[in-house]
C-alpha cells in the first residue's frame, strides 16, 4: 500500500505544512472516523466541531481554520480539492480488465493499441480502434466503427453502439449505453413512423459517464459530449444534444433532444430540460427543476418547491389552482385604486 510523508503530500498539493513534515500518511478518512496514519479534511463549516475531537494524524485545512487548530495540517485554499487530489494518490480501485481474456470476441479488423486489456465475454466489433492502455470490462460490447481513445476505461456490461467515438482518459460505468437510437418518430394518422438515427456520438477527453446512463445517437448530425463533462448515474442525454465542457449533470436528470447546454454548467438531480433549447455557460440548475425555455443569462434557476407537511402541501396545491383568478382580482383592485386617485 502506498504511503507519503506530510512533506511529500505538501509538494504534491502545493500546500503549507503545519507540524511534523516527516509524519507518514497511509490513507484518507472523514474527521469523525479517521485514526492513526490517516489524513482527513475540513471543507464544510458545519463539521468544524469534529475538528477538535478528530483522531486523524493530519488534516487538510484552510488558513482561517488552521489558526485555531494545533495539530498536524496541510494548509491550502481549497481543502476539498486537496482531498480529491490526495484520494487519487491512495486510490485502490482495480483495473476494469487485465490482459485479453480467452473468451473475448475480437473482430479481425479491429486495431488494438499497446497495453489494451479486454475482459471475459467482451465483444469488439468490425473496424474498431482501441487506443493504448484502453480497458474493456467483462461483458461489454463495442460496436462497428467505434474509436476509443488512450487510457479510457469501460467497466463491465457497457454497450457502445456503432459509430461512437470516445476521447482519452474517459470512465464509462457499468450498464451505460452509448449510441442507442434517439426517440425520433413521425406520426401518420395515428401511426408512428420511425426515423432512422444515422448520426453518431462524439465524446471528448476526461469524460465520466455514470452507471445506467444513456447517450442517444444523433438523428442526422452527432450527439456531442465535450471535454471534462461528468454525468451521474441514470442520466438521459437525447439525440443531437450538445453538452459543453466541464458541465456536470446529477442523477435522474433528462435532457430532451437538440438542446445545447453551455460550458461549466451544473444541473441538479432529477431535473428536466425540454428539447430545442439552449442554456448559457455557467448556469446552475437546482435539483428537480423543469427548464422549459431558453436561458440566456447565467445564474441559479429553480422551479421546485420545498418539502412540507402533506396537509399544508394539499392546501397550497388547492390554492395554486386559483392563482390566476387571484391575480385578476388584484389587477382589478389596483385599477380601481388608481382610478380613485
From TrEMBL:
It catalyses: a UDP-3-O-[(3R)-3-hydroxyacyl]-alpha-D-glucosamine + a (3R)-hydroxyacyl-[ACP] = a UDP-2-N,3-O-bis[(3R)-3-hydroxyacyl]-alpha-D-glucosamine + holo-[ACP] + H(+). Catalyzes the N-acylation of UDP-3-O-acylglucosamine using 3-hydroxyacyl-ACP as the acyl donor. Is involved in the biosynthesis of lipid A, a phosphorylated glycolipid that anchors the lipopolysaccharide to the outer membrane of the cell. This is UDP-3-O-acylglucosamine N-acyltransferase. Pathway: Bacterial outer membrane biogenesis; LPS lipid A biosynthesis. PANTHER family: UDP-3-O-ACYLGLUCOSAMINE N-ACYLTRANSFERASE, UDP-3-O-ACYLGLUCOSAMINE N-ACYLTRANSFERASE 1, MITOCHONDRIAL-RELATED. Residues 23-89 form the UDP-3-O-[3-hydroxymyristoyl] glucosamine N-acyltransferase non-repeat region domain. The keyword tRNA processing does not apply. It comes from Shewanella eurypsychrophilus.
